[in-house]
Amino acid sequence: MKRYIGTLAALALAGFMLTGCGDKTVEEGVSLLEEQDYKGAAELFEQAVEKDEEDAEAQRGLGIAKWELEDYEGALSAFESALENGGDKTAEIYNLMGNCCMKLDQAKQALNYYRLGLEEEDASDELKQEMRLNEIAAYEKSGDMESAKSKLKSYIQDYPDDEKAAKEAEFLETR
After folding, report:
1. Residue 21 phi/psi, 5° resolution?
2. What is the pLDDT of residues 15-37, one digit of tens each?
3. Domain extents in the chain
4. Does domain 2-136 fall into CATH 1.25.40.10?
């Protein structure tokens, strides 16, 4: 998950620079994210959001910080606000949103976010693979074992060397 933070922090900084915003709060928040000072980053992003509730970059940064602080409800809310306010719809954001939902026992909602993430053009092969595994877990958690088996079968065809998936297939056969 840490690999996402660097990428998302870079995206947040790029967005900040492109908007030409004179407020340094978001930029400082991004720096704290990169330093893994998530509490400090969250405080700065919250200040930026208080100044401008429609600041998508501040909302995204707040979501990242809250995810790292294991405040999954707060992270999900911040990510949703970022998207509602014109923030970039990226595979990484959708994956994080799905992961938040999984932590909050909202598997059906997580499935929606994973699907959206898989549809995004910016999804790397590695991220697509991760989201496909996450999707299988969400189907299992929601109790839809048939869909989980079907998705896993397709996954194993595409990634035959994934030992974790092979073990998962064995487990699902018992269900």
Report:
1. -60, 135
2. 544 344 446 899 999 999 999 99
3. 2-136
4. yes
